[in-house]
Predict the structure of 5-methyltetrahydropteroyltriglutamate--homocysteine methyltransferase.
Amino acid sequence: MTAKPAAAAARATVYGYPRQGQNRELKKAIEGYWKGRVDADALRQTAAELRRGTWQQLAEAGVHEVPTGDFSYYDHVLDTSVMVGAVPERHRDAVRADALDGYFAMARGTQDVAPLEMTKWFDTNYHYLVPELGPDTVFTADSAKQVAEFKEALALGHTPRPVLVGPVTYLLLAKAAPGVAADFEPLTLLDRLLPVYAEVLADLRAAGAVWVQLDEPALVQDRTPAELNAAARAYRDLGGLTDRPKLLVASYFGRLGEALAALAKAPVDGLALDFTEAGAGNLDDLAAAGGLPGKRLVAGVVNGRNIWINDYEKSLATLGTLLGLADRVDVSASCSLLHVPLDAKAERDIDPQIARWLAFAQQKTEEIVVLARGLASGTDAIAAELAANRADLASRTDAAITRDPAVRARTAAITDADGRRSQPYAERTLAQRAHLGLPLLPTTTIGSFPQTTELRTARADLRAGRIDEAGYEERIKDEIREVLSFQEKAGIDVLVHGEPERNDMVQYFAEQLTGYLATQHGWVQSYGTRYVRPPVLAGDISRPEPMTVRWTAYAQSLTDRPVKGMLTGPVTMLAWSFVRDDQPLGDTARQVALALRDEVNDLEANGTSVIQVDEPALRETLPLRAADHAAYLQWATESFRLATAGVRPDTQIHTHMCYAEFGDIIQAIDDLDADVISLEAARSHMQVARELAAHGYPREAGPGVYDIHSPRIPSTEEAAALLRKGLEAIPAKRLWVNPDCGLKTRGWPETRASLENLVAAAREIRAELPTEAA
């Protein structure tokens, strides 16, 4: 049957787009600027060319309204802090001296000034810079970036829609500035912030903006009545302005819930909602609220966070229902396309059949355009696209890669006993201390050491055939020997081999597991200039052979000190991959856990006494609504225990987490039953140590004393001060000393100096401790 055309022609649009360029041109230009090889004008020129290319590609694909202002040199929340004048006092001199260098100082810090704290953007692997606010914060409008980029697009003949982080989300993402009472609520500054937003909106209106998008993803989380009232007040005031463009309030990553009714009644001109799996309830809620009569609805029916092709028939059914609920229905992705790679057609090494199932940013843009055309003109207008889509979906369902009977049988046979250690922690820890013989406040690192130019060159040489496998392995051995030698001389107690053979903590394992696919060009921004290539989890998972045993055993043969085995945990293997969407996440996690269990047991059998299974994504993947937490945490913690519980009592299991808010999952961290946990703590000034203590966490912990996401070198005194804060919360006999995270992004000079200072701080504090502390 042919669908009827929409009463008003549907348009195609997107909320935002990847920033980096096809070959990560932005990353290269920014890092060149930091190193002095690229000047500011050249950096700005590269940025302008990337913006121009993005808008042109969107327009040529058929997108009617292109986003502006979503481009960023580092982070869009940091850009918002600049826009509203929320520059911390410690950074103001740098910003006054040079706006660009001051901007990067806020993001990365300098040797003399610490950066802003960094944490995860909702339940994604994107990191944002946390605004620091207090009761004395004075906001001032600076719309230069937003206006300039709007005018750029307008001059090129596009229809631009500026995109801003909304005022409520901005304040809800903020924290109390250093020195401000911890119970300070940034949302109390809303009435002070709204006039600044009004000024920015007026500037954009004066520049010619017809629509402006205000992103409010924080409203898809559980919110108090006071927070919901603040949102209603914000959009009553902004919507009531006379000198403003039309306002499109966008939410994504889930169901808007209680906030939908308030926004639907607000005097704004449109809402953008997520109608993919995470936000499926928005359809019912919108109908219950009486729809959006007289307003524009931007319907996010193409999933902006995964890489699987859209189901056109399902999306068109949703869009058809929405036609009766708004004055105008336009089509978009569920969120910014920042979270997916650029172009699936660039992947030449993926099986052509599987490639038919993949949609990166460019392909998602094409899907949006097809759906908008089908909604506007009827399904006959897209008959060929519908037929091809049905065939592609069917080929995925029937593909052999998706199901492995042996894996499914093993997963079905899991028992509760498989996820329990043979002894409780109180007994294990005695066996581990006797076996390992570590000092008080043992020192270690998180795993990786600098990925030098020589290492990257060696990998490129191997791929290009300039060296053979034997030559490559000699280079890896040389690097492992150097890393171990440095750690021994520095006085580190539990060593790592440095991971020189690894490209990425998820990709390295994915390339050795069945069911995973690796991309060559699937880069996605994690933070700043840090880009990752999330592998594609397409089918059932198993481990054909050991993945890390050889290099870990080689490293252990070179030293008498314990060398940690290093693995990535099952939740993180899912979270930092594009995971299959055709079965529950918990089922996939158990498959990965069993593969890792085999690796953990093989490491132990080959002489590894300390094994770290990293789960930095445990908090990140926590659902945004509290009602969904228990089910997620049940399978997430179960999968970690399943991976690690098969070892002897005297084998010490570590885990690591970083750059997230851990306070609301401390019980889940406890439920992992790891012997030692290391966590990010330097930028947050040991907040997590206090949270562990408040929970009564009974195991050993290493809250980080070295912020590795900044190029600055912490002094011995600085590390010692953080350790003293840590000791206020965690007894010395359970406290470890380590950096916040792995060191692969750092250079050797700063790594050497920072770790030497870290060890010196541990020795200093040990000397201060009473004998009975041991």
The radius of gyration is 26 Å.
